[in-house]
Structures are given as structure tokens and as C-alpha cells.
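Worked example

This section walks through a single chain of length 476. The input is the sequence exactly as stored; nothing has been trimmed or padded.
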Amino acid sequence: MSDKTLVEQLAAFTAATTYDRLPADVVHESRRIVLDSLGCALGAVDEPKGRIGIQYGRMTGGTGGDATIIGTGDRVSVFGAAFANGELINTLDADAVLPPGHVTPYVLPGALAVGESVGASGKDVLTAVAVAHEMSYRIGKAMDYLRDFKDGKVTPPPVYGYSSTVFGATAAVGKLKAHDPGVLAHALGIAGSIAPVNSFRSWSEHAPTSTIKYLLAGALTQAALTAAHLGELGHRGDLRVLDDREFGFPRFIGTSRWEPDVITDALGSDWRFPAEQAYKPYPHCRILHALLDSLTEIVTENDIKPEEIHGIKAWVEGFVEQPLWVNRRIEHVHDAQFSIAHGLAVGAHRVPPTKAWQDPDLVFGDSVMGLMDKVTYEVHPDYVKLLSGNAASRPARIEVAARGTTFTGERRYPKGSKSPEPGTAMTNDELVAKFRGHAEGVIPEAAVEQVVEAVLNLETVEDFRDVMRLVGRTDG
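Given that input, the structure is written out below as C-alpha cells.
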């Protein structure tokens, strides 16, 4: 048992990790996370949440700074850029997912901004990305999870959210600023004390939900950057904030389960996040993806047009009977990203799953809204059984009534997740296609290809500013 606190052990892990010590699969996933996130951000520049993020980033970031707001020609402070880019990455709800849920839009923006500001190498950025995701994943596994179950029943926690990603986000910033273990420890201790609240369950219960989503990405990036800089400037942090279950961070986030050994077990030698790192082929909440896979297959293979569909019945995940997901009041494009009925109605229209899914003409169109009224659903009867067999399980069954026939589809694992079934993980080519779909029309075509080449070979990039300049270009 270590005589160091959890914060001190996480700081030591951050400081000791170098690119040369990263396993090949960790480097591979870190590259893919960066590419996927840049694409998600580019696709969001004209969306309401994305536009607001950009505007606020400009307000707080000033002008003439050394960090880029993605998809714009703006260079602002690292604080302004991180806020805007966090919001952009998360806007479409197409960003990568990893327990405890959404991690990347919280931990990556600060790394992008600071990496650009200091002119870090691609290797240094990859190392920071890897540290942030591994730390966030381990802390996420130590606490309550939205897909928890007990005694054969789904038991979503009453308090839940992504506040815990503040540690990984802070570590990434400190890593790129070359902070020593002592500074890192105090920064992490500060991060735990100023993290945003876990407001997910309040948000999900109050439909139509707030458009800031489950946790405002921009706000968490500010907390992480603040913590890292305050540690650097000499503030003392709470080094026992993670160890104290009664009065520390576990109490702050309302978790009933706290397993600190999960955080530190083989930390630095056994990298665990790549096994559960997943990507989203659709700009919609992950709960619907297995159903969308089956629906897409049915309507494509049988050339079924939306007007031919008399009804859609779906069997869904066990925890989704909350106002967020059962909502049919589609007042904002944001609402469409979470509604089960609306999402299936959009999926039946065979629109490429890019930023086009957020087009108001599609979202609010008579065809989609009319088909939404023909969608019914209930909880999958084997949800807990299949989930207990493999954590990647998202069992789904769908029936499409059309042309006097019922077409049926079933999935256990959605596209984008690693699973025992071949073909569910997204390949590099598939992620590149997703990136191109989101980036099209936002940055020049030549820049799109340059970004793909640079990020998939990020370890060869000497100055990360070169990458960020490419995603900031708006000239033809």
C-alpha cells in the first residue's frame, strides 16, 4: 500500500509517463481520439450550441492570443479556445465515449489549447491525451455508473455526471506545461475542490432539457486550466481530496460506490482505457446506436422509403425510461439528439450521419415529425442479462412495419464499440470518412486531407501549432 495519497500517485503517474512508454494501442487510440474530436468540432461551427461556444470563447479569450478556435480564423487565449473547443466537440453529441460516459470534450480541449500555445510536439500531445483518458477512465470505474444494475434490475444512481474528468483534464494541461510531480499534485487537489457539480440526473429528469447538456464542457475546461495554473503559481491543493470518502471528492459527486484501488492498480504499466474506448457513428445519444444500426440495414437493404413505414417498434436499454429520452417535444435541434422516437424517425430517412442530421429542415420537417408519431418502444427484456455478460452490450431489437410486412433487426453491440463480434469497432478508414463528412465545407478540402495525414501520424509532428492552424483555416 502506497504512503502517498491518491492525488500524489496520479501526479507521479502523469509526470513519469513519456511517449516512449506508451503501448502501441494507447498511441493508436489517442491519435483517433484527436482526429474524431477535431471532426466533431468542425461539424458544429454552425450549430446553436457551437455558435454560442465560439461567441463566449471570443468574449473571454480576447484577440491576438496563441490558441485557435476550431473552424474559425480566431486566435484567442488558451482559456477562450478551450471553452469554445470543448463546446464544439460536444455540440453534435457525436464525440467519442468512454466510462464514465463523455470524457473527451472535457479533457482534450485544454490539451489542444496548451499544446498549441507552447508549441508541443505531436508526441507530447499524444502523451497528454493518453494520460487524461486513462485517469478519467479509472476514476470513472471507481464510482457509480449510469448503467449499473443490482439484483437483476437497472439501478441508475440518483447523482451522476462527468465532474470526475476534471482530474484528467488538469493532468493533461500540467503534462504539456512540464509541471513536476509536486505542482501536479497541488493542481489536482485544487481541481477536485473546484470541479463543476454532477448535474446529469437533474438535467435528464427535466425535459425539455437544458441545452448546456449533462455538464457544460466549456466550464469544466476552465476549472482544469484554472487548477493547473494555480498549482503552477504556488497555491496549495487538497492532497487528500480523493482519499476522504466521507468529506472529500466522493462526497462532492454523490457516489455511493468508491473503489480507490481501481484508480491505482497497475497504474502506468497496465493501460485500460483503450479496451472500452468507443466512437459514435451517429450524431445522437449512444443509447440509440444499436437500434440505428439495425434500422439502417433494414431500410437500406429493402429500399424502404419513410412514407412506406406504418410503424416502428423498438426494444431499448434498461435505464432510458427518463424524460430526456422519452421526450417527444422537439423544440430545438438539441432535443433531437436524445429523443428515442425522433432519432429513429431521422434514421429511417437514410440521411448520412454527419452534421446533416442537425439540419433544421430535417429535424423539424413534416416527414420526420410525422414518422416520430409512429414509433413505440419498451425496455429490452434481456437487457440486464446481456449487459452482465459483457459491458459493451447495448442490446436492441427493432421491428419496422412497411408494405404489409414486418422487418426485424437485432443487435447486441453497436457499431463503434470493441466487442466479441467482428466488425463492431470503427476502423481508421471509417473514422476518416466521419471526419471528412463533418469537415466538408468548413475548412478547405486540401486542409481536410492534411489534417488526416498529420493526426494519423501525429507522433511525427514537431510543432502541434501546425495542426491547429489547419483546423482554424476558413479560406478557400
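What to look for: The radius of gyration is 21 Å.
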